[in-house]
């Protein structure tokens, strides 16, 4: 299933890489939403607890991002150069090094999880979050490694394999969730295991573990040019590991600051009560669907751009990034229309609490307005992750989230005592600012001079 993306139609390659990625990511988003759907049947407090945990949990995504983004440059450029031995070594180091980093991060976060969660809610909500969260932390290395396997397939031009795996495990999670959560499975009245919120975590880690195992076996039993070896996982390569840290470091710091800003924003949301937190959790998961086509396009384009850079064809990489920007903007426009037309109906699927529905609907509407501009900026930014020039991600995130969005929140909520609507509106201003910064750095063109090898 490996594919040379350095020849042929650019837009065809982008779509052939992006569409399977979109379907796979959509399937993954489905099982996030399924979790919230079933947890919502327990209580709004349960949703709030899982929302607080998830917001804190994604702080460690900065580590996944550092190595993941670096691996895109290393694997796709090595493959574009037809250096199959270097490609295999990069794959081995990506998986093993990320597993090790996740193990350290999970141990560290487990120590501080409870006191962090206690800053945002009462004991009942916190207990729900801890019940769900400790198991998710324990399986963090498997989750990170599964992400790496999927990224490797895409860098080699194979977007179908991760799509199939992700769809399969999403369907599996769909069935496992109610069995593990409830004593009697809703709608079909069959006996379940009754683990409550913990059951949702069990279903998720079982699904993720199976996804990793399937992808790992396929990747390491291949008969193509690129042949990673299992024994290569048990020794670290200093030169590659340094690149895995340094190339993606701006992205990792960017994600860390972004997720820290999300925690601060959650603090503002919590001022309006547990129902506002629950609404933030439900609408936030739905927003994940908005980014499915955008991330699918940018990840697909990153493989096209990366292989083109490896082959020395800068004009082709420029063409791919520009096309991706236009497609990303169109995709985001579609979501905005859906948010304004059907937002309330969608939120109502997850809760019958009228206040949660009201808050969630407002978030979908007001928080989505800036996405059409962000779609274009993120599409162009596929050139940054492919080339290994990731500084623009860091600067755009810090300025837009800490310099723009949080300043608006402080002025609107703390000084002028504005309603919760201003929390949602702050996302629009942040998205627009981030897009303009990404566009500026794309036009400067320094990414054209960067190479991972």
Automatic annotation (TrEMBL):
<feature type="transmembrane region" description="Helical">
    <location>
        <begin position="12"/>
        <end position="31"/>
    </location>
</feature>
<dbReference type="Pfam" id="PF01554">
    <property type="entry name" value="MatE"/>
</dbReference>
<feature type="transmembrane region" description="Helical">
    <location>
        <begin position="323"/>
        <end position="343"/>
    </location>
</feature>
<keyword id="KW-1003">Cell membrane</keyword>
<protein>
    <recommendedName>
        <fullName>Multidrug-efflux transporter</fullName>
    </recommendedName>
</protein>
<keyword id="KW-1133">Transmembrane helix</keyword>
<feature type="transmembrane region" description="Helical">
    <location>
        <begin position="163"/>
        <end position="181"/>
    </location>
</feature>
<feature type="transmembrane region" description="Helical">
    <location>
        <begin position="193"/>
        <end position="220"/>
    </location>
</feature>
<keyword id="KW-0472">Membrane</keyword>
<feature type="transmembrane region" description="Helical">
    <location>
        <begin position="99"/>
        <end position="121"/>
    </location>
</feature>
<keyword id="KW-0812">Transmembrane</keyword>
<dbReference type="GO" id="GO:0006811">
    <property type="term" value="P:monoatomic ion transport"/>
</dbReference>
<keyword id="KW-0406">Ion transport</keyword>
<keyword id="KW-0813">Transport</keyword>
<dbReference type="InterPro" id="IPR002528">
    <property type="entry name" value="MATE_fam"/>
</dbReference>
<feature type="transmembrane region" description="Helical">
    <location>
        <begin position="133"/>
        <end position="156"/>
    </location>
</feature>
<feature type="transmembrane region" description="Helical">
    <location>
        <begin position="37"/>
        <end position="60"/>
    </location>
</feature>
<feature type="transmembrane region" description="Helical">
    <location>
        <begin position="363"/>
        <end position="381"/>
    </location>
</feature>
<dbReference type="InterPro" id="IPR048279">
    <property type="entry name" value="MdtK-like"/>
</dbReference>
<feature type="transmembrane region" description="Helical">
    <location>
        <begin position="263"/>
        <end position="283"/>
    </location>
</feature>
<feature type="transmembrane region" description="Helical">
    <location>
        <begin position="393"/>
        <end position="416"/>
    </location>
</feature>
<keyword id="KW-0050">Antiport</keyword>
<feature type="transmembrane region" description="Helical">
    <location>
        <begin position="289"/>
        <end position="311"/>
    </location>
</feature>
<dbReference type="InterPro" id="IPR050222">
    <property type="entry name" value="MATE_MdtK"/>
</dbReference>
<dbReference type="GO" id="GO:0005886">
    <property type="term" value="C:plasma membrane"/>
</dbReference>
<feature type="transmembrane region" description="Helical">
    <location>
        <begin position="422"/>
        <end position="442"/>
    </location>
</feature>
<dbReference type="GO" id="GO:0015297">
    <property type="term" value="F:antiporter activity"/>
</dbReference>
<dbReference type="GO" id="GO:0042910">
    <property type="term" value="F:xenobiotic transmembrane transporter activity"/>
</dbReference>
């Amino acid at each position: 299933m490996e594919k040379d993306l350095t020849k042929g139609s650019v837009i065809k390659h982008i779509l052939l890489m992006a569409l399977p990625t979109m379907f796979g990511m959509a399937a993954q988003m489905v099982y996030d939403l399924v979790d919230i759907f079933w947890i919502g049947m327990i209580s709004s407090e349960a949703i709030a607890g899982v929302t607080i945990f998830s917001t804190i949990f994604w702080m460690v995504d900065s580590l996944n991002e550092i190595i993941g983004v670096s691996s895109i440059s290393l694997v796709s450029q090595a493959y574009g150069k037809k250096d199959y031995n270097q490609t295999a070594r990069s794959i081995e180091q990506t998986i093993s090094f990320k597993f090790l980093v996740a193990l350290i991060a999970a141990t560290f976060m487990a120590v501080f999880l409870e006191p962090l969660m206690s800053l945002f809610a009462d004991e009942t909500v916190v207990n729900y979050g801890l019940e769900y969260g400790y198991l998710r932390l324990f399986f963090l290395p498997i989750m990170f490694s599964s992400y790496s396997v999927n990224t490797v397939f895409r860098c080699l031009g194979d977007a179908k394999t991760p799509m199939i795996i992700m769809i399969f495990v999403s369907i599996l999670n769909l069935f496992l969730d109610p069995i593990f959560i409830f004593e009697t499975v809703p709608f079909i009245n069959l006996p379940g295991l009754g683990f409550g919120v913990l059951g949702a975590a069990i279903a998720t880690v079982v699904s993720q573990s199976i996804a990793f195992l399937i992808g790992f076996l396929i990747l390491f039993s291949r008969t193509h040019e690129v042949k990673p070896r299992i024994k290569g996982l048990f020794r670290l390569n200093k030169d590659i590991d340094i690149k895995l840290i340094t190339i993606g470091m701006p992205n990792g710091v960017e994600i860390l600051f972004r997720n820290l800003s999300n925690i601060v924003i959650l603090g503002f949301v919590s001022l309006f009560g547990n129902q506002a937190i629950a609404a933030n959790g439900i609408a936030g998961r739905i927003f994940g669907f908005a980014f499915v086509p955008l991330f699918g396009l940018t990840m697909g384009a990153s493989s096209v751009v990366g292989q083109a850079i490896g082959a020395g064809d800068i004009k082709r990489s420029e063409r791919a990034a520009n096309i991706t920007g236009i497609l990303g903007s169109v995709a985001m426009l579609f979501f905005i229309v859906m948010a304004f037309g059907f937002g309330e109906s969608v939120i109502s699927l997850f809760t019958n609490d009228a206040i949660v529905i009201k808050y969630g609907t407002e978030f979908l509407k007001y928080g989505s307005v800036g996405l059409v501009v962000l779609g274009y900026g993120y599409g162009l930014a596929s050139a940054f992750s492919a080339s290994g020039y990731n500084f623009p991600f860091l600067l755009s995130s810090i300025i837009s989230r800490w310099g723009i969005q949080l300043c608006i929140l402080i002025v609107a909520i703390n000084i002028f005592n504005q309603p919760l609507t201003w929390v949602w509106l702050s996302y629009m201003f942040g998205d627009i600012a981030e897009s303009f910064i990404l566009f500026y750095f794309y036009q400067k063109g320094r990414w054209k001079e960067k190479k991972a090898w």
